[in-house]
Amino acid sequence: MRANRVVEGSVQGFLRVLGRTLESEELARRDGLLQSLDPRVKLLGFMGLIVAAAASRRMEVIGAVFGLAIVLAICSRVPLRTLMIRVWAGGFAFTGMIAVPAFFLTPGRPIWWLPVLGWAVTAQGFRGAVYLISRVETTATLSMLLVLCTPWTHVLKALRVLRVPIVLVVILGMTYRYILLMIGTAEEMFESRRSRMVGKLEAKEGRRLAIATVGVLLGKTMQLSGDVYLAMQSRGFRGEVYVLDDFEMRLRDWSWLAAFFALSAAAMWMGAR
Amino acid sequence: MHIPDGYLSPATCAALYASSAPFWYVSLRRLKRRLTTKLIPLLSLFAAFSFVVMMFNLPLPGGTTGHAVGVAIASIVLGPWASILAISIALFIQALLFGDGGVTAFGANCFNMAITGSLVAYFTYRAISGNCAIASRRRVLAAGAAGYLAINAAALLTGIELGIQPMLFRDASGAPLYAPYPLKIAIPAMMAGHLTVAGLAELILSAGLVAWLQRSHPSLLIATAPGAAATHDEGGGFGWRAIRPLLVGLAASMLITPLGILAVGSAWGEWSPHDLADGAARRQIAAVSSDQALPAGVPQGLDRLSSVWTAPFPDYAPPFLHSSSFGYLLSAAFGSGLILLAALVADRAFAARRRSP
Q: What is the Cα–Cα distance from A245 to B315, expressed in whole angstroms?
C-alpha cells in the first residue's frame, strides 16, 4: 500500500473533495437561520467578524466571536461534528504543532518547567500560542460557516458587492464547475490504472504515472478550453458578461446586516483596548 | 505554504493585498488585450487544472510523497500574467471553499505563490532555456530549476512575512499576537521543508511535465519559447549558440566581481578561527549579531575542521598575485570555467547514453 500512495492518496484526496462539496451543497439547502439570509449580508457580516477576530488584542473578544460562530452554526442546523472534522480538528492539529514550540522558544517570564527536560514554559510563549490557535480556529470557523450555509454560486454573485470585476466572478463560477469535472476525470484515470494494477508500484513508476496523468489532464484542459470557447461563441457570446442579480434585500436582511456591523464594530473596539 | 487566517496581522494582510492588486490589474489588462473573448474559458479551465494538480500525491526519492503547486507549469504554458491570475483563482477557491489558506491572508498567499512564484518561474525558465529548440533537454532542466526556485522564493517570502510578526505585533505583556517565531526561526523552518521535499516535488513535476509535453503536446510549450523555431537543436546537446546571451551575462558578472572588495569585514556566519580570536573582529561580529555573547575562545570543532582543507585561492586571492582585483577576476573565471566544464562533461555523458541502444 505504501508504494501505491500516488494512486491511493490521490484518489482519496479527490473523493474527499467531492464528498465535502456535496455535503456543503446539502447543508446550504437546509432550512436554517444563515441559509435564509441574503448572501451579501452573510458575506459582509462574516468578513467584518473575521477582521474583528484577526485584529483583536484580547483573548476574551476572540472567544466571544468564536462563541457567536457556534451559536450561528447551531441556529443554522450545521452539525458541530462537521465543524469539528472539517475545521477544528485539522486547525488544532496543524496550528497546535506549530504553536507548541512557542511555549519554550518565546523569551519571557517562566511559569512552568517541563519535567525531565527542564525546559521553561514562558507566560508570553503560552499566551502567544493561545492567541494563534484561538484566532485560527475562530476565523476558519467563520469562513467555513459562510460556505456551508450559502450555495457557492450565490457566494460568487455576492462578491459583486465588494466590486470584484464581473469577469472574475464568471471565471470563478466556471472554475468551480470544471474543478469538479477534472477531479472526476483524474479520479477515473487513477481508478482505471488501479483496476489493472497487480502488486506494488515502484516510486519511479509512480512518479511517471502521476506526471503522465497531469500531462493528459493538461492536454484535456487546453482542448476543453477551446471547445468551451467555441460553444460560448455559438451561443452568441461576444465578450459581454451578464450575471443575473436576483438577490433582494428584505427588512430582515437589513436588520441582520446592522447586527453584524454592530457586533463587528463592538468586537474591534473592545479588542483594540 | 498556504498561510491560514490568524497568522498575519490585518496590517500585513492589507499591505500584501495592496501589493498584489497592481499585479492582478496589469495581468487582467494584458490578457484582455491579447486574448479578448478567449480569456474566460482559458483562465477558468487552467485555474481548475491548477487546483487539481495541487491535490496530486507525488512520490519522491527517499520514500516520502509531496504536493506541488504547479506554478512553474502554469508560467511555462500560459506565460507569467495568465499564470498569476490562474493560480490566484485556484487559491481563492481553495481558501473560501475548502479552508486551505485564509481569507484575510489571501493577498499574502497570492503575492507569495501566484505572483512571486509565477514571475520567478517564468524568468528562470526563459533565462536557462534561452532560444533552444522545443525538444531540447535544456528546457527540461530549465523547467525543473524554475519550479524549484519559484517554490523556494515563495517559501522565503512566507518565512519573512511570518517572521516579522513578533517584531511588530505584541500585546501589553510582550506575548506575540500572531505568528510567534522571529525571522531566525521562521525562515529556516519554512526553507527546510521547501529546499527538500516541497522543492523536489515542484522540480519533479515541472521537469517531468515539460519532458512529457515535448513528446506529446509540443505546441503547448511554444507560447514561452518565441525564439525556439529559429534554432535547429533537436535535443542532442546544450546548443552553445542559443545560450550566447547567458554567456555574455556571465562574462559581465565576472568583470564586476572586484566590487566585492568594497565590502568591509567578514560575511555573517563565514568567520574564520582568526576572526574569532581577533578582538576587533569579535566586537564587529557581536555588533552584527544583536550583541549575542560570543564563546570565550575559538570553538574546538571549528578550529579542528578549518584546517582539514586549504583552499588553493583563499579569499579569492591566489597567493602568487599582488593585485586583489585581478585575483577576484581570475577566481571568477576559474570557478565559472569549472562549472561550464562540468556541464559540458555531463552533457556529453547524457548524449552518449542517449545514443547507445
A: 69
